[in-house]
């Protein structure tokens, strides 16, 4: 089992909000086995001199779409699984190089890509995969165009595409969820409200009934996992959370009453500000559908307000980006956008310890501590004062380690 000692690092303590200079960490295999704040670790293992750089845990992005490889949605629907898989591999490797050592894919990623990651055939972050999303007919996961003659109805109440199972009724939802869990999904994603990318649903629609959502959450709980829900409108958020959803994605129209319900049910909010900015800036250039760009205008200014409301209510706020296709390189900008409403320390906590708790991996991810996975970054400067070194495509990250393996190094 290989070992490495990192010495002379400014250890970022996310619990206390301080950095401790002249610190050391010992890594053995894929785990951290010793942490020495303010002191030197000795031994026969190779030594890496951090030269005073900040040592911190790898970042966690709890809302990515590695399999959505272009903003041109009609073109996306025509791409083969092998084409998408090859492009997704490149996107995942870029995420890792930007310092995101763990991600939660929120819909669309094929099982084969994660198997290739696990086998070492491609490089990328640790992935928690949601598989196909679960959507009602005419919901946020239903991308079938309208106006093509007779509807395609079947007695099974489920139709599937590369991204979603369109399932109506509790029994159909239950079957769709079981299928994704059988296929290795780590958690389940449902669409509980309208969205921007889908063609036929207004943003404020409430999607799925309580019984349909409860079918999904009960099946997930039976397999020891949970459900995350795309939800914009307060009514959709309340219905999802009270039906057992653990994680609300986006939540841009969150209000005080719905935030209170989230806090009472210990639900997480995963905001995704950067995708709104990027779609507004580059969406038209890359063929993002015009009706979706029109919807976007209704939410551009709402995201930061939702975060403030959630924090005031005591909701745990994670970190996500939701970037699509050509906008993926802006992943790190979410850190700067979040810093408009949170301190750099709290932004980093969201992208490490809070997200680790959301994933059910507290103490193992998002931490520099004995027993934690050795997902580590060495960063120029002090991120508690300035997040820019992390935000500019990881330009200020001089070393990325994932599970004890150095996957990127700018050190001599």
Automatic annotation (TrEMBL):
<dbReference type="InterPro" id="IPR051781">
    <property type="entry name" value="Metallo-dep_Hydrolase"/>
</dbReference>
<dbReference type="InterPro" id="IPR032466">
    <property type="entry name" value="Metal_Hydrolase"/>
</dbReference>
<protein>
    <submittedName>
        <fullName>Amidohydrolase family protein</fullName>
    </submittedName>
</protein>
<feature type="domain" description="Amidohydrolase-related">
    <location>
        <begin position="54"/>
        <end position="407"/>
    </location>
</feature>
<dbReference type="Pfam" id="PF01979">
    <property type="entry name" value="Amidohydro_1"/>
</dbReference>
<dbReference type="InterPro" id="IPR006680">
    <property type="entry name" value="Amidohydro-rel"/>
</dbReference>
<dbReference type="InterPro" id="IPR057744">
    <property type="entry name" value="OTAase-like"/>
</dbReference>
<dbReference type="InterPro" id="IPR011059">
    <property type="entry name" value="Metal-dep_hydrolase_composite"/>
</dbReference>
